[in-house]
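Shapes recur. One chain:

:::
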Amino acid sequence: MRMTVSLCVIMVEITNNLKLLPLIMLVLLISKAVGDAFNEGLYEEQARLKGIPLLESKPKYQMRTMTAKDAFGNQKVVSLPRVAKVADIVSILRSSKHNGFPVIDHKRNGETLVVGLMLRSHLLVLLQSKVDFQHSPLPFDSLSGSRPISHNFTEFVKPVSSKGISIEDIHLSSDDSEMYIDLAPFLNPSPYVVPEDMSLTKVYNLFRQLGLRHLFVAPRPSRIVGLITRKDLLIEDGEDTANVELQSTSVRLHRHDPRGPGTSVRSLDVERPLLNGLLAQDRPSN
């Protein structure tokens, strides 16, 4: 990123001579062309030297034929159970440099359920405070009582003047290592998830537009639970959200004819696709 236009405006403002504007623009354009032929801009080079994963404005051409599964390849996913042993958490943090870990829970039928995303910095805060350690390996919601509030929001925010807590700053006794932590109250319960066959170009744009750090990749689900459109997100101010039924483009099981209250549409129309229903409404009546 070379600030060609910005430098041109700055130099014209400094010299206060508009006659030099064409000459300055010509010099800057030639300089930019020569610089782009050899390397990236100054900011890109600094980000590369510091190891910052700075994404360009547009994805590479090769990504058009790649999928989300091709991005991570055979890389093994390091996950945590919902109720994790302290010793296991410390071992994972020491052996892995990831900043985010998926938290999974196993159902009784053996199915694995993704609970959310747990950040590395939040795990370090929990290990350092030790106030959430428990002796039971069961989830806290299955125990009696309610969990008291033991943390402030500022504890999970990394100070600007420091690098935060590292695993070397954690000192645990042998008794602490045998205890457990229920991660459910501290994780992000709604991480972004994409199917494994999603285009890598779209994945790239998601990271760019949403500023993501982590993105879960899962097999394409076989069942759809709903469909959300822009109209579903429109709620009038002052309207009781508890009594609002958001209108979706998916066909409802129970619809009413606008010609009269209480008049139900026949079941055949309910099973039609939305497009067929719209075409049927546009037909002239005899």
In short: The first strand starts at residue 80 and ends at 81. Residues 21-38 form the longest helix (18 residues). Residues 4-49 form one domain. Strands lie at 80-81, 83-85, 100-106, 112-119, 133-134, 180-182, 193-195, 216-218.
